Amino acid sequence: MEFPVVPFKDDSPMKLWPSLTANAFSLQCGQSETVFFYDSPPCSERSSESGSAEPKAAPVFVLVHGLGDEADSWRHVIPLLNARGFRVLAVDLPGFGRSAVQGKVNLKFHAKAVIKLIEAVLPDTQVFLAGSSLGSIVVEMAAFKRPDLVKGIVLVDGSIPGGPAIPGPLVVAKLLLSRKWYKAYRGNPQKAWRSLNPYYGDLDSMPEEDKDFLRQRVMARVESDTQERAFFATQRSLIWKYLFGAFAFVKKVRAYRGKILLIWGKKDKILSLSSAESFKALRSDIELEVIPDAGHLPHQEKPVETARLMADFAE
Question: Which has the closest alpha carbon to 59: 309, 258, 311?
């Protein structure tokens, strides 16, 4: 089935990152399902006077955000990859950001959405997939499902196996059943802002433009009922996958023939570097690059280093 791609109509409380406004689109998957994405061409095509360059001729990265995030998480990496000659698609997973969906979502649903996007926008093209945190697991699932579409995968501070230690039953029950902590951020911008601290090596050292953007964005998330539903449905799916799906992932990682790169922030407080080392031990050819002074989101804190590692890997 073919799904049409249309320019994104910016009527969402999730405002676009200013420099990417012209590159915003929606994949229409049905009356109630749309997938938002940025599609940013390489700099060489933008400067071409002949207009003869075909977008699909450039190598492509498809970028997938983490839990409770959006495509704008990659806002600084996108132009850096464009400058290295890559076309870049960055997606809002169903139920997050500006992607609309009815009903519950899960990891499998997210992976299918990524595959739909590749098939619709990039037919007959192999891509590199990169995912952050939970997005890394979505990337793994999409690559294992459709290896014909994927040249290689980049996992940024996230993967199965090699994830966090299994929490106790009380912690699992709280994660699965309680939403009080999420709702507590509503109407409390300072508390919502400080909730971002564990994800960064040094949140306060971020540029002012980024801090202003993140303050607005975190409030837009916690005030949204749609985002809340998607967050908890996806979180439940993630917990079950960690608890009961890790062994299957071991076999799939070993069987996967594409290239794999791990990028990790040395100061990650969510998933320690030992998680990456456990994953790397599965195959001798898996590459691991550690970025000093970065936390769980090195593509936001250290975009130059992250983009360079991604481009070098793909080239």
Answer: 311
